[in-house]
Structure prediction request, 219 residues.
Amino acid sequence: MGRVRRGLKGSGQSGDVLERMEAAALETVSSRRLAAILASELAVFYYTFAAWRRPPHVPTGARAFSVHEQSGVAALFGVLAGVSVMEAALVHLVVMRWSAAAAWILTALSSYGAVWLIAMARAFVLRPVLVKGGELVVRGGMMWTARVPIRAIAAIESGAAKCGLQMPPACQPNVTLRLSEAVAARGIYGMTRHVLSIGLAVDDRDGFVKSLTEEATRD
Prediction:
């Protein structure tokens, strides 16, 4: 666990939390799936309690594009966290009349749910989409990460069609990327999905498309 803690400390300074945490966890457990679960759980507490003064993670030379402002996804998760806390207090008072143990168990579960929602909100802010070195790194909070070679982008569309991966979820994308080859999207807790299309609700759509076009020309 010492290696995992060091990975978490380093991730706040110079790298992506999920990637560094999972790499550190792999030195502790042999299973990649277990490492992903451990990294995800630790990242939840990092984003909730230790990341409030951190700037978004943007490697040197990369161009970053946020997806949380116009979509309102970070604000939505934040509101849901607040509602969860108020609901937990109400449920606690009601259930306490019949069982103190059940009331505290439900309160603990609701509290963790609020922590999880706050982490999701912060992660969408701190993990923008990146364009760098012939690669597009699609990051949707803690939910999904996909690395797409620029050469694999066959078409850039306006963004209304159904996509294999949509970020943020439940938001209308304004850019749809059609891929010439399937790419692996890695999700929270080690989930994996292979997709041939990605829809993004990018705050700076024109700048994002221009950046992809420039990278494609450079390649």
